[in-house]
Design brief:
The N and C termini lie far apart (about 55 Å). This protein is α+β, with helices and mostly antiparallel strands. It contains four helices and seven strands. The protein has helices at about 45-60, 125-130, 135-140, 145, and strands at about 10-15, 20-25, 35, 35-40, 70-80, 95-100, 115-125. The strands form two sheets. It has a four-stranded mixed β-sheet, with helices on both faces. Strands 3-2-7 form a three-stranded antiparallel β-sheet. Helix 2 (about 125-130) runs antiparallel to helix 3 (about 135-140). It has a single domain (about 10-145), classed as Alpha-Beta Complex (Nucleoside Triphosphate Pyrophosphohydrolase), CATH 3.90.79.10.
Length: about 150
């Protein structure tokens, strides 16, 4: 039996107090830069735990779920056709819940080479411009409102 992905995911914007944002480049689409993302493992999975797990898997940063800030924002978007085969037949939309993680300073990360091939820290505006996903770009543009940094 094939285990399909659930159409419920998290987006985690990792940033510094100065609003430098970490972006990672997808292994399966070299032109796609993004924040940490990932789907829940089970229908009853806790989203904050999913977010902490994805941060660990995709960046090597060990965080506790309580360190993540839940923005109370969810985005419903159409799943890109190239990735629909990962979901049950007929599933065309995903609901993404937005979180952030403020780290004290720019840090090196350890990528999962199966998922990502490069990383970089950018000013929040430049990071939003580089994101391929509109919902990811919009979340980064909201960082001054929802993040724990400031624009000094």
């Amino acid at each position: 039996m094939t285990a399909f992905k659930l159409p419920l995911s998290v987006l985690v914007v990792i940033h510094t107090p100065a609003l430098e944002v970490l972006l990672i480049r997808r292994a399966d689409h070299a032109e796609f830069w993004q924040s940490v993302t990932g789907s829940v493992d089970a229908a009853d999975a806790d989203l904050r735990h999913t977010a902490a797990r994805e941060v660990q898997e995709e960046t090597g940063l060990a965080v506790q779920p309580a360190e993540l800030v839940d923005w109370g924002i969810s985005n419903v978007y159409e799943i890109y056709p190239a990735w629909r085969h990962r979901y049950a037949p007929g599933v065309t939309h995903n609901t993404e819940h937005v979180y952030s993680l403020c780290v004290p300073e720019v840090v090196s990360v350890r990528l999962s080479p199966r998922e990502h091939t490069a990383w970089k820290w950018l000013d929040w505006r430049a990071a939003a411009d580089l994101c391929f996903s509109p919902s990811n770009a919009e979340a980064i543009l909201l960082l001054p409102k929802f993040g724990q940094g400031n624009l000094s």
